[in-house]
Amino acid sequence: MQKGSIRVQTENIFPIIKKFLYSEHDIFLRELISNAVDATQKLKTLSSIGEAKGEIGDLSVVISLDAEAKTLTISDKGVGMTGEEVDKYINQVAFSGAEEFLNKYKGQNENNIIGHFGLGFYSSFMVSDKVEIITRSFRESPAVRWECDGSPEYQLEETTKEQRGTDIVLHINEESQEFLEADRIKAVLNRFCRFLPVPIFFEGEQVNNPTPAWTRKPSELTPEDYQAFYKELYPYNEAPLFWIHLNVDYPFNLTGILYFPKIKQSYEIQKDKIQLYSNQVFVTDEVKDIVPEFLMLLQGVIDSPDIPLNVSRSYLQGDPNVKKINNHITKKVADKLEEIFNKNRKEFEDKWESLGLFVKYGMMTDDKFLEKAEKFHIMQDAAGTEFYTLEEYKNATVALQKNKDGKQVIIYATDPVQQNTFIKAATDKGYKVVKLETIVDAAFINQMEMKWSDVHFTRVDADIADNLVDRQDASASVLNAEQEEQLKKLFEQQPAGLHLTVEVKGLSPDAAPVVATRPEFMRRMKDMAAVSGPMGSFYAGMPDEVMLTVNGNHSIYQQILAAGDSGQQEKMTRNLADLALLSQGLLKGAALTSFIERSVELMEKG
């Protein structure tokens, strides 16, 4: 029997591992199973080049639980280790067995090797009082048993073991008894090991799919295969809209399948995250630095052996491959969207409710994507019957909707039902009104006005229809100056929470007697403030700006001004103003109650 001290660069490696090396304790199982898979893949490689003789047989990895003995065992039938290898790879932590193996067999299928022996093994001491290794090499060599209790002291001795391979036996410590529960182990295996490339068994059942869809060639897969894999990842989700298969081997390695899910307005952002793998070993579902921010709503899997298992934020932010992967994913998504738009525009339009969120996020945050997206970003008209690209909208509105600054005015509605009166007034003038009603549209409009220098957005209720493109001078009304002044005074009462400005204009006698509009700039600031938290509190706390445009040519004002009773005049004008505010959803609470009571009173008198 050999006894000795593990030759590490510090005596304090175990406290470091327990506290700092891994943020989650259950990661130990991933590390040990990854090592088992690594050993199995090494054997396959050596067998394929004739260095490992004979039949290699069953290569599954088995996890066994013995709650009574308080042990958890990970067993593989891979290359195993000789006593010298145990001494070198386990006792001399500074070296890595996988690194040496990669150097020796460079160019021979090394991508199949996780290459993670070394410190990964020591994660077992996070949950164990004692760890045993019982191993027998594929080479003609006696089996050996290694044991360590978490101090630098170990013992190594010859033993008997029938099969080639390695058993790691963890004697689970008092604080980690949860890892003696089958359900807890199943949950960890499901998270970290469900797509490992070697069959993994626990309690007699295989817990993984060794050949998930992303590891196969796109030409081998049917739409049903992609749908089935999505169901495997997200069993309770609706079928996805479509998917993108990533398959790159130069200048970096990247495979994966990204799905576009159906998104509702109330969608819980980041509910089902994209999962990052390294050679089919789960790394993380925090992929913020790898996947462009606007595509964080996508679902699926990306796998890159160029990203190490023990991945950190600082590594991701500084790694040049990560930036390349990020750019590649952006390009693939843009190309796929353009392809669908060009091949089947109707299908694209039908899916726009969900796709629009991705596209608009991308256009706001990524200028390269914006450049491509201008070809397939579409806007639906307020009636819901027609879609326009930006170019198509410009062509359809060039005669009527170019303002005096030479900018194309995009007139939009955020609530076609509530804004129906304004939409009708605008379309009666020949204007095209589009819907911009999603959770991102307020920010999208502001961003696009900066990026599209020749475009200006105006909400359909930002002014009377005559003023939506260019503000018109006040038209003459049939009222004289004294009557106009009297009418202005009657309307200039300031309801709580509103700041009213009143103007009298000579509109068509058939137009509404009063129109309440909300000037674009201030309303937009308040909309943005509502979603920007404390930073927007200045604008959020300000009263709503409302312009009341009184149509001096409407016949009702002749009646109001002719009425001698100033109290009656006030009630009638107040009611007309309230009707206009009601169309904007600005009449609430006590003001709405007063309006109803006043209306009844006026009807009784009438």
TrEMBL record:
Pfam families documented for this protein: HATPase_c_3, HSP90
InterPro entries linked to this entry: HATPase_C_sf, HSP90_C, Hsp90_fam, Hsp90_N, Ribosomal_Su5_D2-typ_SF
Domain of life of the organism encoding this protein: Bacteria
SUPFAM superfamilies attached to this UniProt entry: ATPase domain of HSP90 chaperone/DNA topoisomerase II/histidine kinase, Ribosomal protein S5 domain 2-like
UniProt entry keywords in alphabetical sequence: ATP-binding, Chaperone, Nucleotide-binding
Family statement: Belongs to the heat shock protein 90 family.
Name of the featured protein: Molecular chaperone HtpG
Organism: Flavihumibacter stibioxidans
